[in-house]
Amino acid sequence: MDTLLHRETEAALAGIAKSLPASTRDSALACVPLAKIGDALRLGLEVPGSVRRWADSLTVKDLAGIFTVLAEAPTDPALPDEDAVDLDDPFLIQSVRGRDEVESIICAIERVANAAGLALHQVGTYEKLSVKLSLYDASLRELLTAEQVTVLLGTRAQLQAEGSWTAAFTRQMGAPERESREDPGGPAFAGEPTEPSEEIVLKYVATGSLAQYVEGYAGRDVDFAQGLVATIDALRAAGEQVGLAARRWYRDLRITAGSVGVNTLVAAAAIQIPAGPRRMAASTGGAPASRPDNIDLGWLYPIKASAMIAVMGDQLEISVFPQEPTSLQLLVFGETEVRGPDPSGRWAARVPRTSGPIRLRILTADGSEFLETLEFSPPDPV
Is the dihedral of CA 334, 337, 341, 342 positive or negative? Predict the structure, then answer.
């Protein structure tokens, strides 16, 4: 394929190959060639040998410094209100395209780290950047549809592949109202509900978004509930993301004689979480489209927080992201108890990886509680 973006990327790499000093170690300056390397990898283009050798010469300390620069960069301009979205707004365009450039830098660094036998989480400051991007992406998903993001990306839309950071954006058609920052479970029913659209179902399965809406409708409609079961089965079989909310609903489900309910006999069983590399959708350039060492649990309804677990060899580390930083009071993960955030403001707990059940309890300041038992199994079958 020969597009304007392909030609621009090839020209930029050719220029970098002629002018890039082998000794370049400045973290901010290094972001420029790394962004173009990442663009090339995502497009399936060849990276000039001199540029590739320069990237391969970067040390773990260099990579950590680059992640620090990205994580500590000034906050993007305030995003507009939903009713004030202007796809010609230069600040919004710059913000969305800048986010995608960061994705290319991560893609380039991941190639360098993997070649050195490292995963991204082993580059010290990656997690801080990952948290920042997660919060920014969540804000964008409440504001923009997939189609609007495509328009804002311009030619960079060609870089998006299955599993990319933009894949979670949906139209959310058929929802009774937009997902609320104040209630990650989504709205309860007001009057006669409409059937959740396919986009909403897929987002619920992956992230737990609009759990009240989807699970509430499934409790009323057996055919919809059976279809939801089939969707979860299909996504698990394909090795795709299935969040904790959907796994919890699936575990507790009982469908009998035209009715849907909760099977109290199995409600106390541990939720099985695959804790190994899933099948990853490769981008055009063969670069990983997802991070096999992170398990995204999604929203932890009824509390207003989401969570992610990093698999680090023989250790499991959970990071909890509350909507309000001061809303958590207690995090219990296995035998580890945490009563406050770390110096960076992150709520996290680490335990040894085990084949047995691990208790997860999160208590908030308003008395809400999330309580579950997780068991980390081999990856879902592919």
Answer: negative
Nearest to 229 by CA among 239, 215, 240, 208: 215
**Domains of the chain listed by start with CATH number:** 4-168 (no CATH), 170-264 (no CATH), 294-377 (2.60.40.10)
Query: Which runs of consecutive H residues, i.e. helices, occur in 160-287?
Result: 198-207, 211-220, 222-237, 244-252
Write the single-letter amino acid at 263.
Answer: N
What is this structure's pTM? 0.52
Per-residue pLDDT tens listing for the chain (382 residues): 567 888 899 999 999 988 876 656 788 889 999 999 999 999 999 999 999 999 999 998 999 999 999 988 765 555 666 666 788 888 888 889 999 999 999 999 999 988 888 877 778 788 788 878 877 887 888 788 888 888 899 889 889 876 678 877 754 433 333 344 444 555 544 445 688 888 888 888 988 888 888 888 888 888 999 999 999 999 888 888 888 999 999 988 875 555 565 554 444 578 888 875 433 333 334 444 334 467 888 888 888 888 888 887 788 999 888 877 678 999 999 999 999 987 767 789 999 988 789 999 999 988 889 999 999 876 555 4
